Amino acid sequence: MKIIAPATSANLGPGFDSLGIALNSYLVVEVLEPLENWLVDHEFGSNVANDRNNLVVRTALSINPELSPRHLKVTSTIPLARGLGSSSSAIVAGLLLANELGQMNLDQTMLLQLATRLEGHPDNVAPAVLGDFVAATYDEDWCDALQLPYPKLSFIAYIPNVELRTKESREALPEKFAYRKAVHGASVGNVYVAAVAKQDIDVIGRMMVKDEFHEGYRRKLVPDLDRIRTVLQHTAHVGTYLSGAGPTVMTVATQAQTAAVVAALKAEPQLDGEVRVMSIDRLGGRVIN
Ligand SMILES: Nc1ncnc2c1ncn2[C@@H]1O[C@H](COP(=O)(O)OP(=O)(O)O)[C@@H](O)[C@H]1O
Ligand SMILES: N[C@@H](CCOP(=O)(O)O)C(=O)O
Q1: In what residue span(s) does the GHMP kinase N-terminal domain sit (predicted)?
Q2: What is the ipTM of this complex?
Q3: Cβ of 106: how many Cβ atoms within 10 Å?
């Protein structure tokens, strides 16, 4: 049995802690033979546990402590702590693992509730469970999440060589926020979602760069956001935003615009990270028997 969970890009500009999309890099968990103790083969290095403390196993045991230990093989093309939802992919994979091994019959709604409670915000886990674009809200008790088909666009990730833990990036955010700014920020997010529903790429692009809630406060942690907006000033594209908590900077483009955006990013000497062209994963977390 294999469990697959996609990468996710959260916020999408103005949708802090609410909007996210599933993308085609994947965490794959292969479930192998029963063992005395949990063993997780992975290539993340010694900072990531390979026993019952591994996030995938810890998540599974948190909802089903009776699970019998297994040998797991984890492979992943989702870089850790880069703003592409690696922790959410591990949480969703762990829940699917417990659901399968423990025959728990949890449906997507329950998986979504459990995943959101564990991650603390729904914008990565919701698309990791459901696939595609998701608008979600969480009130510490229940998560409502609705999926919409996002227009078929490229997601061009600039992935820096450095990690930025989501926890650290959230510490840069303010405790309080001016009422008028909040009203404007919410209206931008509302129009963004309406533009997705209408498949209006022009409005999606204009709303994508009008975030009020987080990018301004994180600017000092992620100088590449402003740098890339400057680099792409004269290259046609839909919009650029900070992916999740960063440091990945995401540029959205039509298929026809993609090659020129990639070339412009690769030509900038200060951008020595990876440029990865990603597409939308429409399916979300899944199990292959
Ligand atoms: N597949 C995995 N297995 C175990 N731990 C993981 C896995 N993926 C992510 N993690 C844990 O989550 C941390 C990254 O989470 P976070 O800071 O939220 O960044 P991201 O934006 O990648 O989700 C990693 O440093 C690691 O501790
Ligand atoms: N809304 C969250 C999203 C974090 O996403 P991640 O991929 O960086 O974990 C935030 O912006 O803090």
Answers
A1: 54-131
A2: 0.98
A3: 18
Query: 166 C-alpha to center of ligand 1: Å?
Result: 9
Q: What is the DSSP string of 193-207?
A: HHHHHHT-HHHHHHH
Question: CB–CB of 145/134 below 8 Å?
Answer: yes
E strand or H helix that includes residue 30: strand 19-34
| Residue 11 CA to ligand 2 centre (angstroms) | 7
What's the pLDDT tens digit per position in 15-45? 999 999 999 999 999 999 999 999 999 999 9
**DSSP string for residues in 47-105:** TS-SSTTSHHHHHHHHH-TTPPPEEEEEEE-S-TTSSS-HHHHHHHHHHHHHHHHTT--
User: Which residue from 78, 80, 165, 250 has its CB within 8 A of the most atoms of ligand 1, so it is best to mutate?
Assistant: 80
| SS3 (DSSP) at 222 | coil
Q: How far apart are CA 116 and CA 52, in angstroms?
A: 21
Residues having CB within 6 Å of any atom of ligand 2: 10-11, 16-17, 83-85, 87, 121, 123-124, 166, 169-170, 214, 244-245
In tens, the pLDDT along 177-202 reads 999 999 999 999 999 999 999 999 99
Which domains does the chain possess? 2-149+281-288 (3.30.230.10), 154-278 (3.30.70.890)
